[in-house]
C-alpha cells in the first residue's frame, strides 16, 4: 500500500523528564535468532480472532467476512512481521557517532548500537527492498530531526534485540525536509513494523512513531512520551503483541488519511496497552476493531471511530467525554458500535458524558459490559441488546435506553416553566415526550399548549433552560431561544 496524506500538526512544548536504563545491549546479539517462545505467544493472540497465524510467506490474511468495512484483499501480518528476531547471518553491524548520519541504501539486516547526538539513520533503498534495523543498545538524542527516517523502501522493520534497552529522543522542533514534514522520532513514508524482544523508549516534542502507510506492532516493549500522537498511520495501525505504554497530550493511536477518505483503521489482536491521552486514547477514522489484548485507557475519549467493534479482549476505560464514540469520521460508513465479546469496563466522569455514544446503531450481542456513568448510552439509531451481560451502575439491564434526550445531558434540561416546577418538568409536574414543545403560560400541564399553534412559516419561539424551554408570545425565534438561555446555566437546542 502506498496511500499518502498531508497532515497539519501543532508543535507542542518540550517534554521534561529524564530517561534511564537506555543503551543496554545484549551479551551476544548474534545468538538471538530463535524467538520460538515469543512466536507461540503471538500465535496465541490470534486464537478465535478470525485471523490466520500458521500460514507462510505473506499470508496470515484477514478473513473477508470478518472485516466487512475494509479491503478484503489486505493482509495484516506476514511471517516476518510476527518473527521477533532477525536472521543475522549476513547482518551489517553499525555503531553511531555524534553528528554523523547513517544512510542505508539496500535491503538487508543492520544492527545498530552506541550512544550519539544529532544522528539520523536514513533508509533510502529501492521500492522493493525490505530493510530491518536491529536496535541493540542504541541511544540517540536529536534536536530537530527523526532518529530513524524511512525515506524509501518497501517496508522498514525496527526490531529490538532480546534484553536490549534503547532510547530515541527528539528535544526540539522538527525541521522540514523539503515538502515532507518528518514529525516523528521514528518516521517512515512506507510500511513500518515494530517488533522484537527488547525495550524501546521514545520521547518527542511532536509525534512518537509515524508511518505514512501501515504501522504494525507485534512484539517488544514500547514506551512513548510525546506531545502529539503516540502512534500515527495514514492507513492502518495493527497490533498482535507487545507491551505498549503511551503518555501523550493528543491521541495515543491515530489512523486516518485526508487524501483517502475511507482510510484509517485500527486492529488490535493482542498485546498490552496502557494509554494516557489528552484527546482520544485510540482513534481510527474508519474503524477500530478489538479482537484481543489488554487495554487500560485514560483520556477524554477512550475509543473513537466511525465504526467501533469489540469482539474480545479486556478493556478498561476511564473517560471524561465519551468512553466509546462512533461518529461521522468518514462518509463511506455509517456510525455504529458493535460489541460481540470481550470484557469492557467504562467509568465516566461527571457532566455531559456518555459511556457509549453512537451516531448510528448500538448493538450488543455478547461479552461483558460494565458501566459507571450518569448517561450509559447515547445512540441516534437503534439500540439492541440480545446477548452478553450488561451492568449499569451496579444493576444488570436487559434492554438499552438512549439517554441523549435526558435532562441536564445533551439538551441541558427541559427548562423551568412559569409558575414553578423543577428542571425537566412542566409546572404541573409532567414531562413532554423528548422535552415536548415547552408550555405556554396559562396552558394545560400535560405538555400540550391547550391549542394548536399556528406556525404560518415561523416556528414558535422558545426560551429558558434548554430543549423543552417555554413558549414565548413574541412569535419570533431568536438565537437565544433556539439554543437555550445561558443565564439559567443550561444550554439547550431545538
How would you describe this protein?
- The chain has 494 residues and is mostly beta strands.
- The protein has a domain at 411-494.
- 4% of the residues lie in helices and 40% in strands.
- It has three helices and 32 strands.
- It has helices spanning 36-45, 79-82, 479-483; strands spanning 92-95, 102-104, 108-117, 121-124, 130-142, 148-152, 155-160, 165-170, 184-188, 191-196, 199-204, 207-211, 214-217, 221-226, 231-233, 236-248, 253-255, 265-276, 280-290, 294-310, 314-326, 336-339, 343-348, 354-358, 361-364, 368-372, 377-379, 383-385, 389-392, 395-397, 461-463, 470-472.
- The strands form two sheets. It has a 30-stranded mixed β-sheet that branches. A two-stranded antiparallel sheet has the order 31-32.
- Residues 1-20, 27-74 and 405-494 have low confidence and may be disordered.
Amino acid at each position: 500500500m502506498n496511500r499518502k496524506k498531508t497532515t497539519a500538526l501543532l508543535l507542542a512544548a518540550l517534554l521534561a523528564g529524564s530517561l534511564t536504563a537506555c543503551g543496554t545491549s545484549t551479551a551476544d546479539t548474534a545468538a538471538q535468532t530463535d524467538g520460538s517462545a515469543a512466536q507461540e505467544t503471538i500465535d496465541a493472540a490470534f486464537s478465535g480472532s478470525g485471523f490466520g497465524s500458521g500460514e507462510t510467506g505473506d499470508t496470515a490474511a484477514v478473513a473477508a467476512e470478518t472485516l466487512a468495512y475494509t479491503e478484503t484483499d489486505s493482509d495484516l501480518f506476514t511471517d516476518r512481521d510476527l518473527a521477533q528476531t532477525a536472521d543475522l547471518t549476513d547482518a551489517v553491524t553499525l555503531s553511531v557517532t555524534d553528528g554523523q548520519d547513517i544512510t542505508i541504501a539496500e535491503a538487508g539486516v543492520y544492527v545498530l548500537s552506541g550512544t550519539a547526538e544529532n544522528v539520523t539513520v536514513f533508509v533510502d533503498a529501492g521500492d522493493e527492498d525490505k530493510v530491518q534495523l536491529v536496535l541493540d543498545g542504541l541511544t540517540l538524542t536529536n534536536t530537530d530531526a527523526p532518529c530513524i527516517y524511512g525515506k524509501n523502501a518497501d517496508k522498514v522493520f525496527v526490531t529490538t534485540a532480546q534484553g536490549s534497552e534503547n532510547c530515541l529522543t527528539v528535544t526540539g522542533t522538527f525541521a522540514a525536509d523539503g515538502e515532507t514534514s518528518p514529525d516523528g522520532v521514528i518516521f517512515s513514508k512506507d510500511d513500518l513494523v515494530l517488533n522484537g524482544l527488547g525495550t524501546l523508549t521514545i520521547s518527542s516534542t511532536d509525534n512518537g512513531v509515524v508511518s505514512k502507510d501501515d504501522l504494525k506492532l507485534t512484539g517488544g516493549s514500547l514506551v512513548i512520551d510525546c506531545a502529539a500522537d503516540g502512534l500515527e498511520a495514514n492507513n492502518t495501525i495493527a497490533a498482535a503483541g507487545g507491551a505498549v505504554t503511551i503518555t501523550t497530550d493528543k491521541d495515543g493511536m491515530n489512523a486516518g488519511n485526508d487524501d483517502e477518505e475511507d482510510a484509517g483503521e485500527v486492529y488490535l489482536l493482542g498485546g498490552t496497552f496502557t494509554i494516557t491521552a489528552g484527546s482520544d486514547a485510540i482513534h481510527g477514522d474508519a474503524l477500530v476493531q478489538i479482537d484481543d489484548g489488554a487495554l487500560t485507557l485514560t483520556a477524554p475519549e477512550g475509543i473513537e471511530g466511525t465504526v467501533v467493534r469489540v469482539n474480545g479482549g479486556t478493556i478498561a476505560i476511564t473517560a471524561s467525554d465519551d468512553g466509546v464514540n462512533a461518529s461521522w469520521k468518514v462518509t463511506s460508513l455509517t456510525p455504529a458500535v458493535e460489541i460481540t465479546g470481550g470484557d469492557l469496563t467504562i467509568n465516566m466522569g461527571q457532566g455531559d458524558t456518555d459511556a457509549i455514544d453512537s451516531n448510528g446503531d448500538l448493538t450488543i450481542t455478547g461479552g461483558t459490559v460494565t458501566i459507571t456513568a450518569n448517561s450509559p448510552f447515547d445512540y441516534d439509531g437503534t439500540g439492541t441488546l440480545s446477548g452478553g451481560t450488561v451492568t449499569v451502575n451496579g444493576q444488570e439491564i436487559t434492554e438499552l435506553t438512549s439517554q441523549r434526550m435526558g435532562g441536564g445531558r445533551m439538551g441541558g434540561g427541559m427548562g423551568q416553566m412559569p409558575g414553578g416546577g423543577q428542571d425537566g418538568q412542566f409546572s404541573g409536574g409532567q414531562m413532554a415526550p423528548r422535552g415536548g414543545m415547552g408550555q405556554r403560560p396559562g396552558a394545560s400541564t400535560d405538555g400540550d399548549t391547550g391549542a394548536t399553534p399556528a406556525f404560518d412559516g415561523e416556528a414558535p419561539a422558545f426560551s429558558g433552560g434548554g430543549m423543552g424551554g417555554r413558549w414565548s408570545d413574541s412569535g419570533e425565534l431568536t438565537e437565544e431561544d433556539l439554543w437555550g438561555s445561558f443565564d439559567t446555566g443550561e444550554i439547550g437546542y431545538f
